[in-house]
Amino acid sequence: MSKSRVQSFEFNELVAGSAGMAIEQIIKVIENNTAIINDIAVGVTQSSEGTQQLTTASERIASTVQQVSSTAQELANIAEDLQNNVIKFNVNKD
Asked: Which Gene3D superfamilies does the annotation name (predicted)?
């Protein structure tokens, strides 16, 4: 084998080894990025679920406030009716 062929072979071997190491590093980076992306996806899912729970809780609070408001109005009407009846009773008493 000629000296230039040996040198060419050695150079190709060196390049192939470097390329192999570069590919291994790229694979590690890709795996790391994939893990990070998966963590982000889990975080987004959890955040979405939390937001949905907050929305549901807010809707329940709004419904409860509406019920309390309606009940308060009913109680005010009952109190007014009671007051009118007491006035009638007091007027008839004399």
From this structure: Methyl-accepting chemotaxis protein (1.10.287.950)
Distance CA 36, CA 30 (A): 10
Q: Which residues are within 8 A (CB) of 9 and not within 5 positions of it... i.e. 6 or more apart? A: 1
Enter the DSSP assignment of 65.
H
Please state, in angstroms and rounded to a whole number, the distance separating the CA atoms of residues 44 and 52.
12
pLDDT reported for residue 89: 73
Residues in Cβ contact with 68 at an 8 Å cutoff, skipping those fewer than 6 apart:
none
> Of all helices (H) and strands (E), which one includes residue 62?
helix 3-93
What is the rounded CA–CA span in Å between residue 67 and residue 61? 10
Q: What angle do CA 89, 72, 77 make, to 5 degrees?
A: 30
Q: What is the pTM of this model?
A: 0.58
Cα angle 18, 21, 22; round to 5? 85
